[in-house]
Amino acid sequence: MSRSVFLRANWRYLLMANYAIDPALLVDHCPAGVEIDRHDGETFVSLVGFLFLDTRVMRVPIPGHRDFEELNLRFYVRRQTDGGLRRGVAFIAEIVPRRAIAWVARTLYNESYLALPMDHRVDRHGDRLAHGSRVSYRFFSNERWQEIAATVTGQCQDLAGGSFDQFIAEHYWGYARQKNGGTVEYRVDHPPWPIWRATDFQSSIDVSAVYGPAFVEPLSKPPRSIFIADGSAIAVHHGERLR
What we know:
The chain is mainly beta. Helix content is 11%, strand content 53%. It is built from four helices and 15 strands. Strands 1-3-5-6-11-12-14 form a seven-stranded mixed beta barrel. It starts with a strand and ends with a strand.
């Protein structure tokens, strides 16, 4: 079947905070037909904040919906096919600042989108980050701003093959549970992303309220790693039902 492009955009300055987690906490969130992916025997979730820029749906820019933030909590899955292994992501929750965006994602993919006021801070030198740049993404919920933030350290570098960072950043498929128990699979195309290391990570998210009490303990620990991916143009293809 054709996998025509549904959405094109630029994803930039992806702040990724990565936490080890008990896979038992993800079983009820895992879409049918895929299995939880692991790196060196461990399971991970990631808090990811980033910018959507120059967004176009079916090649059409939607006024007031081209540039916006997203902050999500995701985990890593895999599916074996006749054509090989497909490594992808599934989501606990995704936050965006526009109700129309959340409605489209829920309607077409049954993704767990929330629409909340958001903003961001990205300290740039031109269109690039540099040592000492501060990157933050936040949303307003329960009468307060809730944020993740980190500071760039060192120089931008390519991902090392087989590394933990590559495992986190290079999953090119998305999987969404459906209300009837089925699964929608969609492909996301983008080139490999260079990354910056990050330090001074801070999170003020009310984890229990946003993601559920089960995630409080793992997300209260220091992240296993923190980095900021440069990002690039991306293409999200129309989804296909697996079952």
